């Protein structure tokens, strides 16, 4: 079955109630994972960047906005337990080496997967640190060319590679679902490596299309309401859309069938009715 990853990311806006509502929604709809983003603000951004003016619900600087969106490790532990309660798994994107170390050794539970965000798949230090954890890695390919993607795959040997365009929301002409087909060819040399698709379109059509092309994991941002504050909200899918998406995905999996032509059992009575016994010249089969 296709693994469905509902990315909450920072769409919780630093609010645990919103975070838990999103987790509960993803679990109730039948998603397999929720994914967050975790970073150490002072390691990911420079002081000059953090001191830049920026109006937000938390203040007037970039730092205040970033800190307002960031959940603590204690909050992550709470969310982890909540995921266990509602029956869904959890992992997160890691943006710095300290976060990677805590994920591997300091957090109470090791996640099944660890995500390298698109922005960092060319960062050797980050890839080395992720590789050292021994946790199966997921990478997305946004913002990188073919050579950079192939280098990252060869260096990290991730468990999953997700085709991705990093615009939020992504214009239709830039979705480039053909990358899923290209990744299937690239990853033939790496037995067991999974191919998937990371969606940044607020629409639903590209996700089942990616699955039909061979994506075995799909990642998509979710939100309670696209009008909420946040840079990722416009690229996210609201609850009704998630419901339809999961339903379509499971129907598509059932309908994909076999990669050969067979007479289906449901066709047999139709064949008996329509290939009636009149004199005719049959093909020599």
TrEMBL record:
GO biological process terms on file: carbohydrate biosynthetic process
GO molecular function: N-acylneuraminate-9-phosphate synthase activity
First and last residue of the signal peptide: none
Coiled coil start-end: none
InterPro entries, alphabetized: Aldolase_TIM, PseI-like, PseI/NeuA/B-like_N
Domain PseI/NeuA/B-like residues, every copy: 22-261
Protein name: Putative N-acetylneuraminate synthase
